Amino acid sequence: MTDDAPAPSSRFRSLLPDLSPWRASADFRRLWMAGLVSNFGTFLTFVALPVQVKELTGSAAAVGAIGAVELVPLVVFGLYGGALADAFDKRTLIVWTEAGLGLLSVVLLVNALLPDPAVWPLYAVAALSSALTSVQRPALDSLWPRIVAHEQMPAATALNSLRWTVGGVAGPALAGVVVAYAGLGWAYAADAATFAVSLLYIARIAASPASHEAAKPSLRAVAEGARYAWSRKELLGTYAVDLAAMFLAMPLTVLPFLADELDAQWALGLMYATVPLGSLLVSVTSGWASRVHRHGRMVVLAAALWGLAIAAAGVVGNVWLVLLFLTVAGGCDMVSGIFRGAMWNQTIPDELRGRLAGIELLSYSVGPTLGQVRSGSFAAWWGVRASVWSGGLACTGAVALLALCLPKLMTYDVRTSEHAARLREQRAAAAAAATTATAGTGGA
Fold this sequence. Notes:
mainly alpha
């Protein structure tokens, strides 16, 4: 080994997540912990709700209809929620929506404990949860750039993804056992308890009022954000690629039926856990992400591979191979998510961040929501496995076409992007002004 060759231990450490945002920001740590706890419970309900609809109706289309009732609140409140996030204190919005989501978990618990649970409350809660989440996510997503240094945003995105995937792996895996052996009520009860804990963390973060340049919430303000997004073709590309991938190749709705077809009902919880597991494996080895600069190319490559992995999961007939390919798909989705988040958080001005976060919410939420309807309908019409593999192949083809139509996405480089440079300068000037003000106060 030469003297200048990196030691094996150094190469190993370079793969580990970059913890600089965790060390530098107390509010980042609080929000991270709040998300870890609440996401764990949310994934319990994520499995329990479609299982309960399946038990009560026996219909794949009825399970897919969960996505249909979530769609309108998602679109309306996602866009307007972004305007609210720019105009009001972000911490206040996060606290109240978190409390509302906790109450909805209690409603699911009460319904599950009835002698004859009704179906309509499941759809009502799905719609209301979609509305509250659509208000919360723009506020939350636009808060991260305020509490994390500009150069630490890729690391923060990876750490946030790690938080999500931990809950995504443990929650569904445990939900499969809880629902099978303890009942749906226990899953909903645990979800409600996690929201109570997360509120204790969120209540301790600092206030985050609107910037002086922020517009008041209105349709005009929403339109202003949309015009800015349209002017940034590299951002537009990230939205379009993720929308296509999730709409065409999101198989989660049909997993209960796929487990039945493979005679592997015992593996349902594992199926739900595999996509987050793949994401987790990427997250815990994400140190390399901070050294990548051509983020757009990584978004496209990862989305195309996601589609191929989903197609493979639909073709094979062995449950262990299905689990393997779903895990690979989850890893590809995480790679795409890390670099989409880096592009968004390192280039969008603070006064527009909430509205653009609302558009981002639509790009990564409307796709899966419509994807539930698509996969459920195709499964009822054409068969479960055909629904899965055809969607995966269509996803890869659509992503390749988008890459050809949006060259700015493929050529994006954070080192040369004028938008990233402008935001770096603004953050540096704000930090220098804060340091000067602190020094002046101390001198006085």
